Here is the input.
Amino acid sequence: MDITIVYRMLMFFFLSFLTINICIDYYVYLVSLLVLKITYSYIEPKFRELLPVDKKAVLITGCDTGFGHFISIRLAKDGFIVYAGVLDLNGKGANKLKDRKLPNLHLVQLDVTNSMQIQEAVNRVQKTSGGLWGVINNAGFGIPGDIEFCLLDHYRKCQEVNLNGQIAIVKAFLPMIRKSKGRIVNVSSVMGRFPWPGRSNYVITKHGIETMTDSLRLEMAKFGVGVSMIEPGAFSHATGFCSDELVRQGFVISCH
Here is the structure.
């Protein structure tokens, strides 16, 4: 048999096999998406039935930008009474939240490193809603840089905001959460589980959040309080690693 014919036959079978596999993978992908969509449409109403959110109060830190900003909007739209902690009540992020004109979204001046502001937030929640069902510990901060070149002040600031700040918020609002048998959600990062070059000051604090959250979960189980942790991945703009301020200071060139 002519070698050219053999070659063409082999190529035909190979391409046919490849095409069939691609088609199968494509249809499996489509079927999987369809199953997920059907499952979600069935499960979501069930969750809403199990968790009536009307008049449940939630405090969220770090709502000027990123995750906190959008979580506060979403929960307010879902019917929660939301206390959105911001660093600047007249800042750009706060004004965007005000523009939403959501009647159950309340802005709170809240620097998690400021004990007076934390106590004022506690007093306001107690006075206006009488209690609290949930806390989302979202405020965070990070400065890129190798250990050799990072200043100790960078480490101190990260620890004060990311770790000590979360602990301070937990301690301040835990009595109300325990009374309502509510939930605490601490926002960590995938960086809390692995070493990352150039992110040591951030990684250290996130690892601390992981162990603190696990300890808190065990301590609160007997009170019926849920303690969860979220570990976001590569959301550089939401975490502030690509903030305009860091670009201006020369810590990063650009993240676009």
